[in-house]
Design brief:
single chain, mainly beta, Jelly Rolls, 1 helix
């Protein structure tokens, strides 16, 4: 994988309440929690995390000021924007290295990963393609997505692969979910 180009910052606006209960903007600016994932060249910008349901909406603390794996916390959610560079001639990364960097446990289903970027989280994911296009690979099929497309993903094995020649930006909301019954996972 070639060196990653840092994409334009994501402007994050967070509202809340002042001491009198009036609605106000508490944060407005470039989201500071941006990191380049060395194994894949992806640029991940963490925007917000909740650790409970229902979510705590009090306070003005920056709930993205933390280290966070890809998956949401138990009973929580994550909002992040990910910039996917084109994969070019080859991926050049192992599935194990990618999973480790993402903080995701290895899939123990016994099936080989279809692609080095294959992973699964115990979550329902809402994926909004903001710019560009990308292929989302499932176990034995794939979906091509373009700007404006939205996907709801329910804990499936998948890999995001940018086969185009331009950066692809996706906004993700991941919400913790119950593990599907083993028979649904082919175990």
């Amino acid at each position: 994988m070639t060196g990653s180009i840092i994409p334009k910052p994501v402007r994050r606006i967070v509202t809340g309440h002042d001491e009198t209960g009036k609605a106000v903007v508490v944060l407005d600016g470039a989201a500071p929690n941006q990191r380049v994932r060395a194994a894949t060249g992806l640029v991940s910008t963490l925007l917000w995390v909740t650790e409970e349901a229902p979510a705590n909406i009090a306070g003005a603390a920056d709930r993205a000021d933390r280290e966070s794996p890809v998956a949401p916390p138990p009973k929580g959610s994550i909002l992040r924007v990910v910039d996917f560079p084109p994969v070019g001639d080859g991926v050049g990364v192992s599935n194990e290295a990618m999973l480790k960097e993402m903080g995701i446990a290895h899939d123990h289903s016994g099936k080989p990963a279809r692609h080095a970027f294959t992973h699964r989280t115990k979550s329902v994911d809402y994926a909004f393609v903001l710019e560009g296009e990308i292929d989302m690979l499932l176990d034995d099929s794939e979906v091509h997505m373009k700007t404006g497309d939205i996907m709801v993903q329910q804990g499936t094995n998948h890999a995001w692969v940018n086969n185009s020649d331009k950066m692809c930006r996706i906004a993700f909301v991941l919400i913790d979910a119950d593990e599907p019954p083993a028979w649904k996972l082919g175990a």
